Amino acid sequence: MTLILEAVIFGVLTGGVYALMASGLTLIFGVMRIINVGHGALVILGAYLSYALLSSGAHIDPFVSLLITMPAMFILGVVLQVAFIRPLKDDREALSVLVTYAVALGIEGLLGFIFTNNFVQLNAWYETASFAIFGFHIAYVYVFGFGLCVAILGAMFLLLYRTPFGAAIRATMLNRTAAQLVGVNVDRVSAVAFGIGVATAAAGGVVFGLTNSFDPGSHYDLISRLLTIIVLGGLGSLRGAIIGAVVMLIVEDVAAVVISPVWASFAFFVILVVVLVVRPQGLYGIRVRERI
Amino acid sequence: MSMLEVENLAKRFGGVTAVDACSLSLQPGRITGLIGPNGSGKTTVFNLITGFIPKDSGDVRFNGQSLANFGPDRIYALGIGRTFQLARIFPRLTALENMLVPMRREGLRGLFSRGHRHDERARAMDMLASMDIAHVAGLLGGSLSYGQRKLLELAAVMMVKPQLVLLDEPAGGVNPALVERISDHIRALNAQGVSFLLVEHNMPFVMGLCNDVVVLHRGAVLATGTPDEIRGNPAVLDAYLGS
Amino acid sequence: MTRLATSAPVKFGALAVAVVLALLVPVFAVDPATTNIAVFTAMYVGLATAWNIMGGYTGYISLGHAAFFGFGAYAFGLVLAHLGVAGGYEPFLFVPVAGVLTAFLAVAIGWIALRTRAATFVIVTIAMMFMVQLLAENLVGLTGGGAGLSFPVPPWSGDFYNTPFYYAMLLMALVALAISWWIRRSKFGLGLLAIRDDEDKALAVGVPAHAYKLTAFIISAALVGMIGALYGYYVTYIYPQFAIDPLVGLSIVLMVFLGGLGTLWGPVLGALILEPAQLWLAYNFGASGLYLVFYAAVFLVVIILMPRGIVPSVLSLISRMSNRQAVGPSDAAGPAPDTRAIAEPSP
């Protein structure tokens, strides 16, 4: 029983990390209606950037490195959107999948070329040190990571719901044409939203890199999980991404304890199947019967 | 037995009651107008009848057969066609191909039939000619003008000879000359035995064309009758001007 | 409306010449390296054409077709092992069995995946693919897991070895093309294209969209499964991460987009261009990450510059040029049309 409880706690903590990554992904979908299949690769890129900063002479702590990597990745996101997404005119949804997949491959190749394909991990004191609470041992890194996720998600909510620009983003998400008609510069909103999404990937990368070993090819597994999460939560719904992430991770961690670690990742997809059969639009998505 | 029997149809969207205990009955061979102020639920009634959205309660029967849980394709196969508020055609298919898409439960037999069988193509061209748009047969749907699309939409729906056609704002968004033509086409098709239920805001159009008129207000039927009876009904005027 | 080759005899003639040339490839190219390229190119021609039946005609982009490819390979290997079939020509007879088995998988996956539209569908196909890969890795008793699955080895020698495989792949490619052509000119195909344009409108005019989508999905998957079966037999040993490889699925999609999504010959052209290029890149840069970087670069250039693909772009360019030479008002009935239409008005 305690094992299961531990798994649940663990699921909540790691769910926070995935929630952060998934919310960036669902934000991008909501604003531009594109699936950024490269999101996993961007997370790994963030992890590698922090890794490089950590391994360099300056020995910059992963969390501190975010001060550099997040702005850098924000700019990268804007550049990617303007260079590769904005030019797409017809068939936007389908083509954007291919384009972002290509970006993912390019990132994977570049990382492989620079860092080779050996597995690495971000190391810091809080990774192994743990504290005890109610008889459970929790490594500090998970708490820090969870805290970071809460902080960034909180900032994102503040941006979206308390600032005029956030209102512009939400307007674009709800109805792009209507937003244009009231004077929202949807192109700029799209670019910035993409940048924000990629910046959150940098943060996700740090926490992911601290708690997992990774190589350039790790993005496949990651993106398949993230995609599953946002489908479960409902494409475009931030609430759904967060809840979906936590639910998925709890189920997976409990399954690892109750069944076996090998089949735990399978549980992930089983949930997806169940959700799609029962409620194809996900928890918080809207049933799209377009233009009746 | 009436052709179309709608009984206590109801639909809510969240907190909004779009359709509320709506009941109406259509006899074959007639042109019926469905009018009402904006937001009275007209298009929702269409969507419910043709199976595009599920109803909360009530029943729809066509020639005695209940349409409960039928999808739009099955309802079309039974003989009820519809057009849309904003004319919808297939933009990447030619006008002629648009005419060849409608089908009546061919199912997998469609695998084995050629899309441009000669008699079907000839019939399609005749239909286009009767609507005076035969000259655009080879053009892509996406390159047609809005008026041409409206005519194409109607022509295509008629290809499988439906018994009842629901027209959503057939006179909407087109110039007065075309409105006249559309009115003539509907009358001509009606003379061949097709029944129509049309939603419209253009009152002269409705009053001049329809045999019966049903007035919808806040999702429920307010009044039914001939155009003259409706014109003289004070409750209808109240509903439109708001009280 | 302008057409390229205006008469049927000319088209048939060109096609016949192409087929004859394809049949003669092993006669001219004798060394195994070249015939290996031929085998893989023919394989991708078939894969791209088969994928196009679903992705091109219905507009439902599946990025998980690698699942069917790998499943077909595994199913074939297991059937051969179970029946104790020895290497040689005999296994080729059992390829359709792999197709049927893959069709069953397609029903299962399709029933779930086709409850969704557009963006969600793409994601679900990706998820399904990873699921199949997981199953292949973890059902060790059945598939051998990470250790892989072996196929019977044919007793052919050296230079001749690739030739039967080439003809088998070529045959599958021609079968896929024939089916694709047949669908395109049938009412079923018209219904698929209608679904692609506007699915709800298609429903409104009686197209049984769900049944049609599922049928296209099954046909596409079965063909891909059979080609996967041939692939497994060709390489004689398969592993989960290589048989069910997302890059294979992605390559197929890129080839179809390059050639022209939804056209008949686009996938063929895309495969003929990209597969040899891909093999060359893998040969020269495979070990380092540069292979992926180049691949990604080509990808992006193609998608950004020629989003509709080669075939439609070239055709509309030609029809625009010939429209300019038109004399009189009869040709100027409207903007230069996309010559992809499958029905012409009676002259």
Description:
The complex is a heterotrimer of chains A (292), B (243) and C (347). Chain A has 292 residues and is mostly helical. Chain A has helices at 2-32, 39-55, 62-85, 92-115, 125-128, 140-162, 164-174, 176-181, 186-211, 219-233, 238-258, 261-278, and strands at 130-133, 136-139. Chain A is globular. Chain B is an alpha/beta fold and 243 residues long. Helices cover 34% and strands 24% of the residues of chain B. Chain B has 9 helices and 10 strands. In chain B, the strands form 2 sheets. A 6-stranded mixed beta sheet of chain B has the order 6-7-8-3-9-10, with helices on both faces. In chain B, strand 4 (57-62) and strand 5 form a beta hairpin. The relative contact order of chain B is 0.19. The longest helix of chain C has 27 residues, at 209-235. The radius of gyration of chain C is 21 Å and the shape is globular. Mean pLDDT of chain C is 84; it is low at 1-6 and 326-347. Chains in contact: A-B, A-C, B-C. At the A-C interface, helix 4, helix 10 and helix 12 of A face helix 5, helix 12 and helix 14 of C.
Gross morphology of chain B is globular
Give the percentage of residues in beta strands of chain A: under 5%
Query: Topology as H/E string of chain A?
Result: HHHHHEEHHHHHHH
Broad structural category of chain A: mainly alpha
Q: How many distinct helices of chain A? A: 12
> Biggest sheet of chain B, open or closed, and with what strands and sense?
6 strands, mixed
| Average residue pLDDT of chain A | 85
Structural class of the secondary elements of chain B? Answer: alpha/beta
**Which strand order spans the largest sheet of chain B, edge to edge or round the barrel?**
6-7-8-3-9-10
Major sheet of chain A: 2 strands, antiparallel
| Helix content class of chain B | 25-40%
